[in-house]
Amino acid sequence: MIIDSHCHAWRTWPYEPAVAQPEEHASLQRAWRELVSWGVSSALVVAARLTGNSDNNEWLTAQAPAFDGVFAIAADWDSRWLPTYHAPDADARLGAILREMRPQAVAHYLGDADDGWFGEPATDVALALLAEHATPLSLHAPPGWRDAVIGAARRHPGLPIVLHHLAFSGHDDVDDLRALAACDNVYVKASGAYYASAADSARTLAARTRAAVDLFGPLRVLWGSDHPVAQRRGFDPRVHLEAVAAVLDPAEQRAVLGDNARRLFFEEPE
């Protein structure tokens, strides 16, 4: 069983350059065809309310049921491209998302610079609400946010915080993530190696995944394709998946490639 912990789909293609069939190119149908061809059985779709897709949360919620439970959704909460990014009352907006969507996770994309958002009382209220609802936070957090993420993880030990793209580690041994790994509720997605190394992204991802498993343990690392953004950047997620599988033993493969995502995003909380 292989579960993709990080893919996307939109009503219409949100990036430049434009494509000939923008609706099909970004669709859940295309995502599913690609995933099946790699042997994937289900996936977490990370919402991103980008240009032309301000309704990505609602659109995914309406589209996903047609796929009979294949897709879980991480709803976009106040991400960096939105006018509500780090505006007051973040907790109220999160509460509305949880009530109206009942997503399997919530996604938040942080800007490059730490603006003190994790120190806001409303943020702590919101994170406590996520923990109460047993809803993981799927978090895009550039390196400048690491101390703030560690602080939030310690204040909310019951909240799984799942960091995108190996937390943008700058080293193949991911030793720069050691303080994050010390927080038992912090997870990392083995995805997006091309952000760090365009020259040999599959080798980079494999090396960093192996190191992350050694550092975080096999139960806190999850593979993700970043479809269709990976293909937009010229990389083949199947090659990345095969490279990651090759550096893991069978028990680690079961955890990293499937069981961890199933436990976090597809099982009903107790």
TrEMBL record:
Residues 3-265 form the Amidohydrolase-related domain. The keyword Hydrolase applies. InterPro entries: Amidohydro-rel (IPR006680), Metal_Hydrolase (IPR032466), Metallo-dep_Lactonases (IPR052350). It comes from the Bacteria. Keywords: Hydrolase. PANTHER family: AMIDOHYDROLASE, AMIDOHYDROLASE-RELATED DOMAIN-CONTAINING PROTEIN. This is Putative TIM-barrel fold metal-dependent hydrolase. It comes from Microbacterium marinum.
